[in-house]
Amino acid sequence: MLYFDTQVILDIEPDSTDKVFARGQVEAGFFKMTGKLNSPLARSFLKSLLYSVWLPVSILVLSLIRFGIEGWSSFDDLQSSLATIGWLFLLTWPCGLPLTIALRKLYRRSRAIAYLTAVVLIPLSAVAAITGGLLGPIGILGYTAVFSLPAWLILCISHLRQQWRQRNQANRNR
Fold first, then answer.
1. Tens digits of residue pLDDT in 104-142
2. Neighbouring residues of 74: CB distance < 8 A, sequence distance ≥ 6
3. Sequence-ordered list of residues with C-beta below 8 angstroms from that of 4, at least 6 positions apart, any chain
4. b/e map 76-100, b = 16+ CB within 10 Å
5. How far apart are CA 152 and CA 158, in angstroms?
6. What per-residue confidence (pLDDT) applies to 29?
7. What is the pTM for the complete model shown?
8. HSE (CB half, 13 Å, CA atoms) of 157?
9. Average pLDDT over residues 75-84
10. Where are the domains of the chain?
11. Average per-residue pLDDT in the chain?
């Protein structure tokens, strides 16, 4: 039996390839059949994906600043522009994930440093993504990944600093 919030969802018999968990959940292949998003990793990834919308939005804002709205004078121009914006979102949305994940991890350690890092790196990454757009989606991903490296470096330094503080605190308590 597969239980979900004390209700029977499916009546399945696990075979030898399935893993049976203590709470009566069965994992068949890659999918855990529980009916809800239990995994903190999956929730964190979905939040990061949602938060990474900053890249397509900032590219759109920079394009509007550069070219203006005058290009949308007729309906045909507006229609082709909306199609381009749709592809822009699909191609650039995942490219903002490296910086987004680094900033989310940095936010847990120090909010002020995370905000300062975001204020500096997000505009630089947006300009780099526009420049990398000349090389295609791989160029956008490459440029934004390179511009996320300072955030990862700051995260690493803050982690090492925290470990050093904990070690010193433990030595003082002895």
1. 999 999 899 999 999 999 999 999 998 888 888 899 999
2. none
3. 34, 35, 36
4. eeeeeeeeeeeebeeebbbbbbbbb
5. 10
6. 43
7. 0.68
8. 9
9. 69
10. 2-32, 40-173
11. 77
Residue carrying structure tokens 């160029």: 139
**Which string of DSSP letters, residue by residue, matches the chain?**
-EEETTEEEE-----TTSEE-TTS-EEETTEE-SSS---HHHHHHHHHHHHTTHHHHHHHHHHHHHH-SGGG-SHHHHHHHHHHHHHHHHHHTGGGHHHHHHHHHHHHH-HHHHHHHHHHHHHHHHHHHHHHGGG-HHHHHHHHHHHHHHHHHHHHHHHHHHHHHHHHHHHHH-
Tokens of 127: 């300009």
